[in-house]
Specification:
With about 500 residues, the chain is α+β, with helices and mostly antiparallel strands. Helix content is about 40%, strand content about 30%. It starts with 18 loop residues before the first helix and ends with a helix. A six-stranded antiparallel beta barrel has the order 3-6-9-8-7-11. Strands 19-20-21-23-22 form a five-stranded mixed sheet, sandwiched between helices. It has a four-stranded antiparallel sheet with strand order 12-13-18-17. The chain is elongated and about 115 Å long.
Length: about 500
């Protein structure tokens, strides 16, 4: 029966054991499950692991809130064995999944493993028939366990790295799965991108050094004195307690617990399954850091191939950001297009799983770039307004005595530039009706000014004058009898047609 069939978690209270069930097991003389075999594995230098598969005996079957002697296909059960190599959920590490084989056509698909009072309950669905006393073979999802080990060792190294870059950042909880690790810690403010990058670098140093990961039981009273020890001291630990140290032998730490050696590396109390060498992790990066409550922050991080993928995605986005910055610095860009690309990159950057320090760096760089572009646009608009107003002033000087003016500005124009120029025209040529066109890229702007006495004498309305040619540009217009304006798109031929149409319209009114 294929292990790949392990799917959704079986979490049925009918298979759980409470204090009464535990008492029943103890009265029956059952001993707690031996689980030291979860630590039975070896590794090659390249990080390939070999895990021990063991045989065991079914000691109890929990089904329908009671202990039974037998179970059959489809039954949801909790099975207690005399020994196991599977890991039960505890200490922030998720449970193993796998299969307990009873015979060639029967067994238990294990989707959840819990421990109560030392009894390890393998929860799952029966295939075939099983009975108390059956001899079984236990196998778990080894690739999944391997990723969990990656992430658990990484959690310890992350804890050490946070102390190095944040000072007193005490662990407040963790969750280690095969997909990622989650780490909660006390800290009053967001980590800077420099701190986040520093954390990644500290863990990477351990990976590059490929230090041995030591794990050994030690007397609790002595172990508590180890210099630099990281532990959740409100937790209750067994005696002896399992000490996990990266790079320094536990025996050395215990022999001289007050020596400074322990403060130079990661040392923690932990009953979880870990790598045998830090280098087997291959890669690591923090992908998220955020607050979850007052004074408590949460980090998500990934390792191995997931970290490789995150770093690769981050480098792609960084290159996009660098390309955009290069375009702006070289002046080779079209404003509306590059703003669209910047906005798209900001959205992609915020939602992508990439190194957290790199996300912050890209966000800061792109935000600064956008601010630079916005300022450049404002400065450019101001310059164009000045040019437009100056050109209209020249038109005013050249058109004294003219009843009408229909002109297109030779410089790039803006709507505000025409408006500012016409304010001057209204004062200096109070009896002149005018339409001024301006072009910027494919955009066409036009404003129409009709003095009140001209409008009254010739029934000339600015909104009607604009309406006579605005359709040539598919323009949006607004205005009334004395002033109107609009904007649309068009080329030089359309502007020529619009000028001719505007002249004919006003000539017909005035002449």
């Amino acid at each position: 029966i294929e292990m790949s069939r392990c799917g959704g978690v079986v979490d049925d209270d009918k298979t759980d054991i409470d204090v009464h069930a535990i008492s029943e097991l103890q009265k029956a003389g059952l001993s707690p499950t031996q689980d030291m075999f979860k630590y039975s594995y070896t590794a090659k230098d390249n990080g390939d692991y070999s895990f021990e598969t063991i045989r065991a005996t079914i000691k109890a079957i929990r089904c329908g809130r009671q202990f039974v002697q037998n179970a059959e296909s489809g039954d949801r059960v909790g099975v207690i064995l005399d020994k196991t190599c599977m890991y039960a959920e505890q200490g922030g590490q998720i449970y193993d999944t796998g299969f307990i084989t009873c015979s060639s056509d029967s067994g238990i698909l294990v989707n959840n493993i819990q421990v109560k009072a030392g009894f390890i309950l393998h929860k799952g669905i029966v295939e075939g028939n099983i009975s108390v006393g059956d001899e079984v073979e236990i196998s778990f999802d080894e690739p999944r366990r391997r990723k969990i080990m990656n992430n658990h060792t990484a959690t310890h190294l992350l804890n050490f790295a946070l102390r190095k870059h944040c000072g007193e950042a005490d662990q407040k909880g963790s969750l280690v799965t095969d997909e990622r690790l989650r780490f909660d810690f006390s800290y009053k403010k967001p980590l800077t991108k420099e701190q986040l990058e520093g954390v990644d670098l500290v863990v990477s140093e351990f990976i590059n050094k490929n230090d041995v990961v030591y794990a050994k039981n030690a007397p609790l009273a002595v172990a508590r004195e180890i210099q630099g020890l990281r532990a959740m001291f409100d937790e209750t630990y067994p005696d002896p307690v399992r000490v996990v140290s990266v790079g320094i032998d536990v025996d050395k730490l215990v022999s001289d617990p007050t020596a400074p050696a322990g403060s130079l590396t990661s040392v923690e109390f932990c009953g979880g399954t870990h790598l045998l060498r830090a280098g087997h992790m291959a890669n690591f990066t923090v992908v998220s850091e955020k607050p979850i409550s007052k004074g408590i922050r949460r980090i998500f991080a990934v390792t191995g191939t997931e970290a490789d993928a995150a770093i690769s995605r981050g480098n792609v986005l960084q290159k996009q950001a660098n390309d955009l910055m290069s375009q702006v610095n070289n002046g080779k860009y079209e404003h509306s297009k590059i703003i669209g690309e910047i906005n798209a990159l900001i959205q992609t950057n915020d939602k992508s799983t990439i190194p957290a320090w790199q996300r912050d760096t890209i966000r800061d760089n792109i935000s600064a770039l956008k601010a630079k572009l916005d300022k450049a646009k404002i400065d450019s608009e101001k310059a164009l307004v000045g040019q437009n107003a100056a050109e209209i002033s020249k038109i005013i000087e050249e058109s004294k005595g003219s009843a009408t003016i229909v002109k297109v500005l030779s410089s790039k124009g803006t709507s505000k530039g025409i408006s500012e120029g016409l304010k001057v025209m209204r004062k200096k040529l109070p009896d002149t009706a005018a339409v001024i066109f301006a072009v910027k890229d494919d955009n066409v702007f036009f404003h129409c000014l009709v003095p009140k006495k001209v409008s009254a004498a010739h029934s000339l309305r600015a909104d009607e004058w604009v309406a006579s040619f605005s359709s040539l540009f598919n323009a949006k217009c607004g205005g009334k009898d004395l002033y109107a304006q609009g904007s649309g798109t068009g080329d030089s031929s359309k502007i020529e047609n619009a000028i001719e149409t505007a002249k004919k319209f006003v000539d017909a009114k005035i002449n």
